[in-house]
Design goal:
It comes from Aquisalibacillus elongatus. Its main location: periplasm. Residues 1-21 form the signal peptide. By secondary structure, the chain is of the alpha/beta class. It has helices at residues 57-64, 67-70, 83-92, 104-111, 163-175, 190-198, 211-217, 243-246, 250-271, 278-288, 294-297, 313-325, 335-338, 342-351; strands at residues 44-49, 73-78, 97-101, 117-124, 132-137, 154-157, 183-186, 204-208, 221-223, 235-241. It has two domains: 44-126 and 234-351, Periplasmic binding protein-like II (D-Maltodextrin-Binding Protein, domain 2), CATH 3.40.190.10; 132-229, Periplasmic binding protein-like II (D-Maltodextrin-Binding Protein, domain 2). The protein is 36% helix and 15% strand.
């Protein structure tokens, strides 16, 4: 996943979104705003770097349901080719909000002076139905029945010193294996993993939705266990904020975060609690992402998004230490500055916690 920052969960798909203008944008939801979060007096544009990844669901739903409009906020979606372009844009305030994943290169950029803040959850695995987990070839089901059976097997992983490599390592520890016990196959394209399964070039892969579901339907692979068996609190992606947005534009940022969390809560009501308007949420997801089949959305393991915005902070730090142990980190990182949960905490005091 090197330099694939605007991911995840459907990491390989890119769907360029145009900016919504005031006249053509979504209508207000008609909801009353919370005391202390009245609509902004002047209409304000917030620039969000997002490429149609499923983990951006909170942005998409809040935009279409009118939650940003309630606060007089207009969202402008922007795309970047890679992190070398995106991270400086966030640090300078050209971009207000973006999504990123934990990688050694990400941590190195911050350590070397690019000032961006991790402010909220944007992707984790849901227990029992991880969207980012291991699969094995369908014909090996009788041979691989436990994690220990991965010994001697060819396992495809999309990157080194990134969150997928970290999850791979956690699986090996859980199995009582070392990296020398398996054959690590670096395969950056998740789609190529499907072909490699079909050609019997690999035995297992750390795969992602919707390709997990697609491979199962084609008889290429089957899910093997669940990533939460060994990495229950892996922080896969985070919402990033610019210092300017969190400081000078604090009142805008509070309203943005309130709207974002409302979108995430609609997402959780639909996919996790199964009490929300699943058809409307899927309609929005098919509009913004590359996965256009509503029926597939009902079967895939969806990205976990915390309705209170809370990240697994200790896991982020643990990932950093793993990359550091691999000699992939250059420079010290001040986590007290890089991880800023104050905006989420402030907003939760106003909108209440999700239960």
């Amino acid at each position: 996943m090197t330099k694939k920052w605007l991911i995840l969960p459907l990491l390989m798909f890119v769907f360029a979104l145009g900016a919504c203008n005031q006249d053509e944008g979504p209508e207000s939801s008609g909801n009353e705003t919370e005391e202390g979060l009245e609509p902004l007096e002047e209409r304000t544009t917030v620039v969000v770097a997002e490429d149609g990844a499923a983990s951006g669901a909170g942005f998409y739903i809040a935009n279409e349901m009118g939650y940003f409009e309630d606060y007089n906020i207009e969202i402008e979606f922007a795309t970047f080719g890679n992190s070398d372009e995106m991270l400086p844009a966030i640090a300078s305030g050209e971009v207000d909000v973006a999504g990123g994943i934990s990688t050694a290169s990400f941590f190195n950029s911050i350590a070397q002076g690019i000032d961006v803040r991790m402010i909220a959850d944007k992707g984790h695995n849901v227990e029992g139905s991880s969207y980012f987990t291991f699969v094995i070839r369908e014909d090996l089901q009788d041979e691989i029945t436990s994690y220990e059976d991965f010994k001697g097997r060819k396992i495809a992983v999309s990157s080194r010193n990134a969150v997928d490599d970290y999850i791979f390592g956690e699986m090996l520890k859980h199995a009582g294996l070392t990296r020398d016990d398996v054959e690590f196959v670096l395969m950056s394209d998740f789609g190529n993993m499907l072909a490699a399964m079909g050609n019997e070039q690999i035995d297992a892969a750390l795969q992602i939705e919707p390709l997990i579901t697609q491979g199962e339907s084609q008889g290429l692979h089957v899910r093997f266990g669940d990533a939460t068996d060994y990495a229950p609190e892996a922080q896969i992606a985070m919402v990033l904020g610019s210092p300017k947005f969190l400081g000078e534009k604090r009142e805008v940022a509070k309203r943005f975060m309130a709207a974002y969390l409302k979108g995430v809560r609609d997402y959780n009501d639909a996919f996790i609690k199964e009490t929300g308007d699943i058809d409307r949420v899927i309609e929005i997801m098919t509009e913004y992402t590359a996965l256009k089949d509503p029926e597939v959305w009902k079967n895939v393991g969806v990205t976990g998004l915390d309705p209170n915005g809370q990240m697994f902070v200790e896991d982020i730090k643990n990932q950093y230490e793993v990359y550091n142990d691999n000699d992939a980190i250059s420079g010290e990182l001040d986590f007290d500055q890089a991880i800023d949960t104050s905006l989420v905490e402030e907003v939760l005091e106003l909108i209440g916690e999700y239960e």
